Amino acid sequence: MKLLVINPNISGDVTDLIESEALRSIRPGTELTMATAPFGVAYIETRAEAQIGGYAAMQIAAECHADHDAVVVAAFGDPGLAALREILKIPVVGMTEAALVSACQVGSRFSVIAISQRIQAWYRENIAACGFSNRLASIRALDEPLAHIGRIQEDQGERLVTLAERAVQDDGADVLILAGAPLAGLARSVASRLPVPALDGVTCALHQAQALVDLGAAAPTAGSFALPPEKPCKGLPVALARLVGRDIARSVTPGG
Q: Mind telling me which residue stretches traverse the membrane in this protein (predicted)?
């Protein structure tokens, strides 16, 4: 089995964190291909940044998905997830959806521990889109500027643990989601200090991606996730144009 793991942000050190945790979650014989966005932002906090990250993820997937069995979008908020499911014939898993599903199998109510206050609105919208708003106990987030996104666990680890403890004590969380690729691995390292289970989105996504490959569900030929209709397109990278327009001769025609 071969999995393509995409970091839709430009931070290579965060990709290293993702890979380190992902390697703990794969079975013998499963291979990883890691990819980092070639453009965009250091970490996603806003709707606009999520749109950019989604496009970066689509471009990477279009160029690299061949010979892979599944794709993992390794950013909380799952930028580009639905679009990738629409244009790829292999399973596509997002950190957010994977963590939410797993959390609801562990406890009744979950809290999300996040890296910034600004990120909360976008997270709430994603949780609502997944249909889990009624299971959300709280989102608690850091309120300090992030000097170096790749070192947030070292710089802010104790504050994140305190937020997690408050989510349990004050908000009634049965399970915690330590959200975002920069926190990959933190749930494992602090699990013994927390009174309820703590989940890592990377871990959840890797396990679910492998399970979906095993499930072997056929790619849809009807419904809203069937391949989009062919049409001319312009200005897209060739690999992405093949997936979106699927007619390169027309796609490169001036004025298409």
A: none
